[in-house]
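Listing S7. Sequence submitted for prediction.
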Amino acid sequence: MSGAGASSGWSSGAPLAVARAAMERGPGLGFELEIYVEFGRTVTVKTYGREVESVTVAEPRGMGVRAVRDGRTGYAFTADLSVGGVDRVLAEAASAASATDPDPFVELPSRFDGPYPRVEGLWRAGVSGTTVESKIELALRAEAAALSCKEIEAVEESVYADSETRIAVVSTTGVEAEADQSFCYLYVLAHAGRDGERQSGLGLSSGREPSELRPETAGEEAAEKARVLLGARPCPTGLYKVVFDREVVAALLSSIIPALSAEAVQKGRSVFAGRLGQTVASSLVTLLDDGLAMDGMATNPFDGEGVPQQATLLIDSGLLRSYLHSSYTARKEGGETLSTGNAGRGSYRTLPGVRATNLVVPGGQGSLETVFSRLGEGLYVESVSGVHSGVNAISGEISVGATGRLIEGGDLGRPVREVTVATDFAHLLGSVSEVAGDARWIPLYGSAHVPSLAVQGIAVSGA
């Protein structure tokens, strides 16, 4: 992260220098100003049939300006970082603020006293230093590894994706910060076939730079997950002890976490409203939003408005300890409430809003096989469908399609498909009976480091 000693002016090309130079043009407007600058580059490669299907390279580069006065706020953004473009976006933000209604909780956050947290290794030279051809080769290797496995008929897609982002935030209230980050991952969706039946499986690998990826491992993982599902059919309807695979846990938590946003709570759109200090989960469940996790995709020294990110304990051995706050929701909450560093932005085009960073469930003990052995009988849910439409953060209801395998005699039995799992947040979190020791980073639903979880008494609708 760069500090106050970074160079200024338009020529350096650094986000902080651009933000400072833009700020120098704003005093005459008569507003408090916040300038957010983003420089990025993303590469996405898709292969199919051992050939390149598509390569997409994007370079988002732009500035967002928030203008505040007397509780009124306006926002404007531009990709034109010339002097003329910056003058226009400053004027547009000020004009937008003049047209809005006042809000007593609107103001820019103050300068952070002290150094920002340091997280080493967030940016690696390997992402920009690896050619597109080499990135294509990673996706092809992952696809080839899956296709070489028994009973794999096709790979629907093998995808390599990466991003490099440099951001800066400068405000008239004294905020001044800059940081950069890189990340990459690949995933493979393989199809196994037998006697006209086809089943699919997903494998993945992630890291800070391409050298950390394991394409063959991802391909083989996808193939094995698909192959073992051949012959799947619905299981009997009933209440089951269910083991949710860590990828499913990540998917479900990504849908639950909006209900732990202070914004949702304050708007009456959260099942967790008014429950701080109360038991909301099994004593085995601890959940953190860790904006400083070493290997997380969402790790950064500061959030979208320059407030330091941190590790926020949301659920502590079953007790609800905190909501996620931006500076706005913290002011609205009042008292001694402070921002938790969760004012996130999708890009320079958007205002900061409450967003999770890295979701972390500390791992438990024992392998997944050990958990199966202890449970004896049940259902292992390896993948789910319909999460976006089947999870309601307001009511807490969950209804999703599921695929997996029965747990029979303490081991994995026959494969299962075309069943529906129905529960709610309270039961899902409150009935966790086992936390496996298999936590890993899952980059497909935001950023999550989670283990597999066993939950008692889950309703399964099948045959």
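Caption to Listing S7: primary sequence and predicted structure tokens for the chain studied. Confidence is low (pLDDT under 50) at residues 1-11. The first strand starts at residue 32 and ends at 48.
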